Amino acid sequence: MRLKGILTGAALALTLAAAGCSTFGSTQIFTSDYTARRDLGYQVPSIPIYKVERKYHRQIVSYDTAEAPGTIVVDTSNKFLYFVLPEGRAVRYGIGVGRQGFEWKGTARIARKAEWPVWTPPAEMIGRQPELVKWRGGMPGGPQNALGARALYLYNKGGDTGYRLHGTPEWFSIGKAMSSGCIRLMNQDIIDLYSRAEVGAKVIVM
């Protein structure tokens, strides 16, 4: 088994063992889908996708898992998010993850979805970055909003986890660990994931 261009054999098996998954080569890649577009009255800028490693471009991959179609599996180590499809396939997206000290893992569900969501920085974030105090009442949705074009809100048995799957205008952060714990995708990718994922879907963060 091999994950194209990234991991091979036992290393991959160890990485994905928690979700009972394995991956193979890409069957379709969407490199041409990162152009500018209008979306619900907002302009989504184009992404210079040639500056983003090819492995982080959205693609359909073979994916062997016991999880049901519609499940989302987040592999934080390799900076991939998988949306499970039928017949042993998945849509794979490149992601940015939480920097050291802000990582999170566990199982949750999508409790709600939002288009061009308002972003309200938590009090502890404002404490670390006082310049964000101007947004304590909420930053309106738009191209510069930290949550990007879409957000999927993750809840578990204890309620709101505070973590989101969301877009970002900072396409250059994909493949890196620099967020405050949330999982970020390029705006064109979160729009695609939003169209596929349903409220109630299971999300596994490894």
TrEMBL record:
InterPro entries: LD-transpeptidase, LD_TPept_cat_dom, Transpep_catalytic_dom
Annotated ranges, domain L,D-TPase catalytic: 70-206
Gene3D superfamilies from the UniProt entry: L,D-transpeptidase catalytic domain-like
Keywords per UniProt: Cell shape, Cell wall biogenesis/degradation, Glycosyltransferase, Hydrolase, Peptidoglycan synthesis, Signal, Transferase
Record's keyword annotation contains Cell wall biogenesis/degradation: yes
Matches recorded under SUPFAM superfamilies: L,D-transpeptidase catalytic domain-like
Catalytic machinery residues: H166, C182
Signal peptide bounds: 1-19
Pathway: Cell wall biogenesis; peptidoglycan biosynthesis
Keyword check for Signal: yes
Record-stated family: Belongs to the YkuD family.
Protein name: L,D-transpeptidase
Organism: Mesorhizobium liriopis
Lineage: Bacteria, Pseudomonadati, Pseudomonadota, Alphaproteobacteria, Hyphomicrobiales
